[in-house]
Amino acid sequence: MTDTRFPALEVVMRVPPVLVLSLAFSAAPSWAQDLEGVPDSGFWVTEVGYGHDFGEGAHYASLEYGPMWPVAERIALGFAGHLGISDQQFYGVKPRLRAFVSDGVSVDLGAGVLFGGDRPAISGHLGVGLGGTLILTGQLDKRTLLYFDDDYRSHYEFFLGAKLDGKAGVIGSIIGGVGGAALLLLLFATVEN
User: Which of 43, 64, 126, 178 is most buried as measured by Cβ atoms within 10 A of its Cβ?
Assistant: First the structure.
């Protein structure tokens, strides 16, 4: 059902996946890190992402920033600070592993406890990086929710989506921040009138 009080909101809610995909396909190849193996020194994870739970229709936007270091040929370990927004805000630190499978393809694993919401959530993701800029991801969250009968129960959400990494992730973060601020100003202006 469409909320006719905020017609612009429906349009804005459709923007994140379009924005993520357009940035991913327009990202310059020079932004990709050297994928002939793990870089000789550490590097930064700078990701902005969007996921959609097709079962429940929920959306999940996230930012992840943190250092990674090579520990073996084509393997890097590190951690990233995580900020996620769904029906609630979540934050935490996720240990991460990145394996460079071949030139231009990597596999990312990350898991951790996220705080925010009613109770902490356990979150894990698996991503396949393509070209050092685009990462296709699946994220599983286990949350404990308080139901109407005052009973806490486990609730699982599975999000499929994409993340931008490297300079594209930084630019996506800036665009998302400016877009979020504009959305808030639009909503406050609409509520006041």
Answer: 64
Q: What six digits make up the tokens of 191?
A: 């509520």
User: Strands 121-130, 134-146: parallel, antiparallel or unpaired by DSSP?
Assistant: antiparallel
DSSP secondary structure of the chain: ---TT-HHHHHHHTHHHHHHHHHHHH--GGGS---SSS-SS-EEEEEEEEEEETTTTEEEEEEEEEEEEEEETTEEEEEEEEEEESSSEEEEEEEEEEEEEETTEEEEEEEEEEEESSS-EEEEEEEEEETTTEEEEEEEEEEEEE-TTS-EEEEEEEEEEEEE-THHHHHHHHHHHHHHHHHHHHHHHHHH-
Helices (H), ranges, 14-147: 15-26
Q: Confirm whether pTM is higher than 0.70.
A: no
pLDDT at 17 over 50: no
